[in-house]
Amino acid sequence: MAMNVPAAGGDEDEAFNSTINTTPLVDVMLVLLIIFLITIPVVTKSVPVQLPHETNIATKTKPENIVIAVDKAGNTYWNDGLLHDNTDLLNHLKGRAGDDPQPEVHIRADKDTLFQYVGKVVTDCQRAGIVKVAFITEPEHGSAVQ
Fold first, then answer.
1. Is residue 103, in this structure, part of any structural domain at all?
2. How many domains would you assign to the chain?
3. Is residue 101 part of a domain?
4. Is residue 80 in some structural domain?
5. Domain presence at residue 82
6. Do 66 and 103 form a contact (C-beta atoms < 8 A)?
7. What b/e readout covers 103-138, taking b as 16+ CB neighbours within 10 angstroms?
């Protein structure tokens, strides 16, 4: 910061010049701007990968596919038929796991279903040796499909 001080024998009418010299401040700001413009492209580089595009694939309904539904009370349904317990589900899955080609299991669960009920179905599919397990969901209303 610079200011002018009057000489020892000068007029008393002259006031102090208390303005700030902004030239060094502008110089520093321009240097910082140049440094940021040079370093930002280097920082944003990442591993080159091709990201997948979002697609909405319609469910291919095959007669051999198994649809397991779970309602919010935890009741399990095998192709619209009520199962009594998880051992019944496991026995049904083991019976179909040996089919060639092996059927896909599509799980439909109510949005208010506790995860433990759906987790039991997935665990039974793993125990039976089912390879393909899918979850059936509804797309959000108002979302655009590309």
1. yes
2. 1
3. yes
4. yes
5. yes
6. yes
7. bbbbbbbeeebeeebbebbbebbeebebeeeeeeee
| Residue 91 dihedral angles phi and psi, to the nearest 5° | -65, -40
61-79 tens-digit pLDDT: 676 788 899 988 888 998 8
pLDDT along the chain (146 residues), means of 10: 58 69 92 88 64 63 82 88 88 88 89 89 92 81 50
Rounded to whole angstroms, how far apart are CA atoms 14 and 4? 10
- Token pair 């469910």 in the structure block, residue: 59
Q: What is the DSSP string of the chain?
A: ---B---TTS-SSPPPB-----HHHHHHHHHHHHHHHHHHHHHT------PPPP--PPP---TT-EEEEE-TT--EEETTEE-SSHHHHHHHHHHHHTSSSPPPEEEEE-TT--HHHHHHHHHHHHHHT---EEEE-PPPTTPPP-
Domain CATH code at residue 117: 3.30.420.270
Which residues constitute the domain of residue 96?
66-136
pTM: 0.55
Amino acid sitting at position 34: I
The first and second tokens of residue 66, run together, are 């198994």
Phi first, then psi: give them for residue 50, nearest 5 degrees: -100, 115
